[in-house]
Amino acid sequence: MDPSTRTEIEAAVFRQLRDHLQEHTEVQNLDLMNLAGFCRNCLSKWYLAEAQERGVEITDPEARELVYGMPYEEWKARYQK
User: Fold this and answer.
1) Which CATH fold would you assign to the domain 3-79?
2) Which bin fits 40, alpha (ψ -120 to 50), beta or left (φ > 0)?
3) Could you read off the pLDDT tens digit of each residue along the chain, which spans 81 residues?
């Protein structure tokens, strides 16, 4: 597999995971952390780190909003138990 195709597939898988987590707000971050060893916050931190490594200016709140699909504080107020 060529590197470009691999990157496209990995990006598509990330988008599917992100979209799934945005749709399934009943899945709590603590549950994800306990079961999978990562949560939405981890995804946003990884996103932020990769963006910064590539010279893309993005803030932590912006990275979280990309993962959560809304501002983190709003998601927390709506869905966090």
Assistant:
1) SMc04008-like fold (1.10.3340)
2) alpha
3) 999 999 999 999 999 999 999 999 999 999 999 999 999 999 999 999 999 999 999 999 999 999 999 999 999 999 998
